[in-house]
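User: Can you predict the 3D structure for this chain?
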Amino acid sequence: MINNVMSRIKTEMFITFNEVMKWFNADEKLLHYKPADGGWSIAEILEHISLTNFYLLILIRKGSLRALENSRDNSYKSLLETYEFDWDKMQLIGMPDAFNWSHPEHMEPKNKTALEDVRRTIKHQLTQSLFYLDELKNGEGILHKSATSVAGIGKIDVYHHVYFLVQHAKRHLLQIKAAKEEFDGSRQYNISNDIVNDIIEGRYVAANLN
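Assistant: Here is the predicted structure, written as structure tokens:
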């Protein structure tokens, strides 16, 4: 059971962060485009993902250490027989419309970090996440729970916290895609206006030549 849980978490992590990393190669205008509703640009969203990962990984690291300490007598192995991972509850994190989420100030982007540094940070954070999962490969991660106030989830074990990190990134990938759609729409509108203006200007010039 625990092997299946870890395999799924890792698979979703690779897929999700592979998608995240692709956005660093986007056009500069797209990266820094500010949505009409005043929301974050794609560059700011990427920075926010890295900031949130930082604080989640603090919880994951502490939880991993305590879980390993609690596993020394191996008595936890009988608990693995009835262990269930709450996929449905955790997937709410990845749904932007599922609940209102107010981010603390220390997780808001400051626009002071170069995007290349943000990219390197997220790559390192992915490595860290995989390291903690490997440290807990025998199921030790079920032995420590810590609370989260997000979406009323309550106390969750280390595996759930790692999956939280993945789902948080998924949530913001949807936000990134929405920003791109708006950007593409505004660019198309500008192109259409340019064409109309060119036609009007052309007619004006032609009328004056006659």
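The longest strand covers residues 145-148. Helices lie at 2-22, 28-31, 42-70, 87-91, 115-135, 158-209.
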